[in-house]
Amino acid sequence: MPQxxxxxxxxxRERQDGLIAAAAALFAAKGFNGTTTKxxxxxxxxxxALVFKYFPTKRALYAAILAEKVTVNELLEAVEEASKKRDDxxxxxxxxxxxxxxxxxxxxxxxxxxxALEGHELSDMFFGKHHKxxxxxxxxxxxxxxxxxxxxxxxxxxxxxAFIGMVVHHRLLHEIFGVPMHQSHEDTVSxxxxxxxxxxxxxxxxxxxxxxxxx
Amino acid sequence: MPQxxxxxxxxxRERQDGLIAAAAALFAAKGFNGTTTKxxxxxxxxxxALVFKYFPTKRALYAAILAEKVTVNELLEAVEEASKKRDDxxxxxxxxxxxxxxxxxxxxxxxxxxxALEGHELSDMFFGKHHKxxxxxxxxxxxxxxxxxxxxxxxxxxxxxAFIGMVVHHRLLHEIFGVPMHQSHEDTVSxxxxxxxxxxxxxxxxxxxxxxxxx
DNA sequence: TTTGAAGGTGAGTAATGACTCACTCACTGT
DNA sequence: ACAGTGAGTGAGTCATTACTCACCTTCAAA
Lengths: 215, 215
Description:
The structure is a homodimer. Chain A is mainly α. In chain A, helix 1 packs across helix 2, helix 1 packs across helix 7 and helix 6 crosses helix 10. The N terminus and C terminus of chain A are likely disordered. At the A-B interface, helix 7, helix 8, helix 9 and helix 10 of A face helix 7, helix 8, helix 9 and helix 10 of B.
């Protein structure tokens, strides 16, 4: 027979990606110490020996995962857009809904927590790419709006952390601690945004409308 | 010689507590899978065999730790007190400062996260005793204040989670991710409380003062 | 003085962990 | 036709792990 057309042998790159994917899922589920190389190999459908052909050590594989998972930017551009227009409501809603989303898988969050708890060397970088960007952006925006005179004068970094905190904590409860959500994602997001913005926006002196007010 | 007076042999109970303390510190630092029974024994200053005299398995020791660490109540009483007086500012400040405190050790937080991530069977109970109490209490208070007409009508549970989220996230950043705090504990707490309460309190219709306003 | 229970241990054991090695297989360029 | 090469593996090695067991020490009550 000419060739077993069923499965073309994957290239080196594909194998590596496959291993990373399989390992990421397992590390996220059970942590670094809780996952064995044998399991990873099995889950990726290869022999254990092959894992070590591609990654010299188990830790190197873990590091490759953390280094790989760098994403996000499309959101930040959109936020930038809304920032220019001073659309407070939109800026906050976008950030919140990015994290509170129907089908986010918890892999990244779990990896992040595990890596921080287990003190992995790349944990900081991972944190920087996945969380710090958010509150740095948000802090910058809040600072601008304070200078505009639109927000009350608060520490921008603290305020940004507070908001991100609401949202991240919500995910934590839901995805890690299994607390059920009793509201739709949209309602949750809008409640958080509303609560937070109301606390932040400076009232003109008199006259206040219950609805949204921007610029 | 009559007796080595230097070290009185500890009783069963004391040994057990010593083991639990030693193990708790190690599990908090490195997780369940990252900690060996040999390390625990060494840290408690006994032979490995003794560990198994007191706890049939390593998991049982872990379970004993989670079951042991149940505290808190003195705070809840104080909160109850402030609740009766409808002292919003105080209620929120007390809860926040309980968690954001100069010298809390991160052991409990780390144990909580590890146990949830590693999916330990007692994790739920641990979570219930250490976190759920807080936001259940707070949610109840918020509900009352909404009925009083003092707070805007929001979902009390969601609002409570939002506030606790700010605070817990702050600890997470600080204790787990090593993010430095650039403000004193007091300022941090008062910023959070101020932000949140301002967003929550219903404005009478006109007239607003920049300072605190309660009841 | 004996006894025996409680506190304690050194030296295992069986299983499992990460990692290695000698080797095969399938395909390609010459 | 066949050497070369990269993908892949079965069967290890050796250290470590959770857990066991036969035995020791102390001390108070009988």
